[in-house]
Structure formats: structure tokens, C-alpha cells
Amino acid sequence: MRRPSRTLAIVVASIGLWMLDCTQLVLAQTVNRHKDSLPHIVLIKLSPPTYPSIARQALIEDDVVLKIVIHPNGSIGSVSTISGHRLLVASAVDSAKQSQFKCLGCGVSDVDQTFTYSFHVSRKSNPDPNCCSNNRPATAEVSQSDNKISITSGPACYCH
């Protein structure tokens, strides 16, 4: 009986590895296609939340996590609080209720998804020493990435 040559063994092993790579690629594409077809909510227009002045003055920072239920037509079914500081919750809920969403791949069923509103107070000193005289509330910078909304407010203005 003749033994296969070393070259033949390498060729057979290479073909086996190539077939394994192809199988993994097909499985990965199937998983990604399935993931993309799962119903999910997209925030299409954010109603900017306000940083409550009492929370800003008390330097309260926290993440407010909301569960938002969206109907297939994109309208809001409900907004409920999962967690977050009580002084920040109302601002996040109001923002969510006034924002616009789109439900992708929803079919005829409602879809729920969590969104996180992350409130932070800037520790920089106030650039306007006369901030109390201009009667303007401190502005907050708002940014959004996927399901996370970040709200960063300037420091509170303290008047004597």
C-alpha cells in the first residue's frame, strides 16, 4: 500500500481549511442579515432635553434609562423609566415623548427599546462673571449616538 505524499496531505488540509473559512463566512453573513432584519427603533429627530437647573446647581449627574415602546407607524406607545435620578427623569421623559422615531422591520407589532440619557455638569469655571445679569438659562450641549443621548451643561450661575 502506498502512502500519500506530503504535498497531497498539504493540499487536502488547505482545501479543508478553505471550506471551513467559507462556511464561517456564510454563517456570519446569515447572522448579520438576521440581525439587520430584527425589528428595531431608530431615533430620527431628537427633542433636546433640558438640564433641570436645580439638578445642575446641585451638581447631580446620572444616566436616565428609559424603555420606549414604538408602534409600527413610528408613533410612541409608551415611555417608562427603568432607572435614573428623580430630578433628571422628567426632562428625559419629556424629550423622548417629543422626539420622533422610526420602527424598522416592525411589521404589525410594537417594539420596545432602551434609550439612555446621560446628564453631566461641566466642571469648567463660568466664563461670564455677570451670568446672573443676562437672565438667560445656562445652555446645554446635546449629542446623540445610537441609543445614547448625552447632555452636558455649563456650571450653574450663582448670584449674590
Model description:
The protein folds into two domains: 1-37; 40-153, TolA/TonB C-terminal domain. It is extended and about 80 Å long. It has 160 residues and is α+β, with helices and mostly antiparallel strands. It has a five-stranded mixed sheet, covered by helices on one side. Strands 1-4 form a two-stranded antiparallel ribbon. The N and C termini lie far apart (101 Å). It has helices at 6-37, 53-57, 86-98, and strands spanning 40-45, 62-70, 76-83, 100-104, 111-121, 140-145, 148-153.
Strand and helix layout:
Elements lengths: L5 H32 L2 E6 L7 H5 L4 E9 L5 E8 L2 H13 L1 E5 L6 E11 L18 E6 L2 E6 L7
Parallel strand pairs: 5-7
Antiparallel strand pairs: 1-4, 2-3, 2-5, 6-7
DSSP strand count: 7
Which homologous superfamily in CATH is the superfamily of the largest domain?
TonB
What level of helicity do the residues show?
Answer: 25-40%
Indicate the CATH architecture of the largest domain: 2-Layer Sandwich
Number of helices: 3
Q: Please state the overall shape, judged from the principal axes of the Cα atoms.
A: extended
Helix-strand sequence: HEHEEHEEEE
Highest CATH level, the class of the largest domain: Alpha Beta
Q: Name the structural class.
A: alpha+beta
Total tally of structural domains: 2
Main sheet summary: 5 strands, mixed
User: How large, in whole angstroms, is the Cα Rg?
Assistant: 26 Å
**Gap between N and C termini, in Å?**
101 Å
What is the strand arrangement across the widest sheet?
Answer: 3-2-5-7-6
Average per-residue pLDDT, rounded, comes to 79
Q: In percent, how much strand structure appears in the residues?
A: 25-35%
CATH-derived topology of the largest domain: TolA/TonB C-terminal domain
- Low-pLDDT runs of 5+ residues are 25-34
